[in-house]
Design a protein that fits this description.
Blueprint lengths: L9 E3 L13 E3 L5 E3 L1 E6 L3 H13 L3 E7 L2 H11 L3 E5 L7 H10 L7 E6 L4 H10 L3 E4 L4 H13 L1
Parallel strand pairs: 4-5, 4-6, 6-7, 7-8
Antiparallel strand pairs: 1-5, 2-3
Helix pairs in contact: 2-3
Amino acid sequence: MTTTGTAPRVTASTFARGGRRRDLGRRRLVDGDNEPAVRVLVVDDNLTFRHGLARAVEGHDGLELAGEADSGEAALGAIASLRPDVVLLDLRMPDLDGITVLERLRETDPRPTCRVLLVSASLDDDVERAADAAGAAGCLGKDTPRADICATALRLARQ
């Protein structure tokens, strides 16, 4: 996010471009039954990465894009208002980093029920330990294929 003096941006899925599914919010199963889609919030200050991951979420069966946020502060507001099932959260952001967002979520009353997957370009053992201690459900590198990030988000929500 650049420091232009504007408020952090949060985009609800109603403003996001639709995916290839006609029945958004539901996943068709083989036997014709419906299963609720997993709602995903994508948080990253890098516009290109955030939009790319959001498009991957929209195109992945069983996932629905709940929204996007470009900062830690915006993430906290989006989690409260959009109530996603899974948050794909960047570690390094200009205002609040991913660990601080996790710590603030833990202090929130009532505590959000979403699972948080930290997605970062700078993962090491210390970061993974800190993320685990702060309540992250897992950590993945940004070099992980987007389809694998989406599959992990779906798996986390279904546990």
